[in-house]
Amino acid sequence: MSDVMIRVPAEVRDQLAAVAEARGTSLRALMQDIAAQTLTAEQIRERADRTRALLAERFGHYVSDEESAEMRRKMREAAAAHRAASAEPEPNP
Predict the structure, then answer these.
(1) What DSSP line would sit under the chain, residue for residue?
(2) How far apart are CA 75 and CA 72, in angstroms?
C-alpha cells in the first residue's frame, strides 16, 4: 500500500482527527472508510441503471426520467432539511 499526502487546512485536519478519535479509529482508517463510501458519478449512474432494471424485472415498474428527476429533487430537499436541522443548536431544558 502506498501513502499519499493530502494538504488540507488545519481546521479540516483537526475535524477529521476528532471524527476518527470519536469513532475509535485512526485517521488513515477514517479516510479509507470515506473513500469506500463515496461514489463517482459513473458509479451512481450504474447503480441507478441496475435499480431501474430491477424495478422493471421484478415489479413491472418502468421508472421514467421525470420520476427519477423528481426523486432526486426530493432527496436533495430532504438532505438539505436534515443538514439545516443538524446545524440548529439544541434547546436548553
Answers:
(1) ---------HHHHHHHHHHHHHHTS-HHHHHHHHHHHPPPHHHHHHHHHHHHHHHHHHH-----HHHHHHHHHHHHHHHHHHHHHHHSPPPP-
(2) 5
Q: Which three cell numbers stand for residue 5?
A: 499526502
Give average pLDDT by consecutive 10-residue segment, the chain, 93 residues. Answer: 88 95 95 93 92 95 91 94 84 68
Cell of residue 27, nine digits? 485517521
Q: What is the per-residue pLDDT for 66?
A: 92
**Of 81, 50, 48, residue with least CA distance to 65:** 48
* The amino acid at 63: V
Please report how the helices 10-23 and 27-37 are oriented relative to each other, as an axis angle in degrees rounded to 10.
90
Which three three-digit cell numbers place residue 42?
Answer: 459513473
Query: Does the predicted TM-score (pTM) go above 0.70?
Result: no
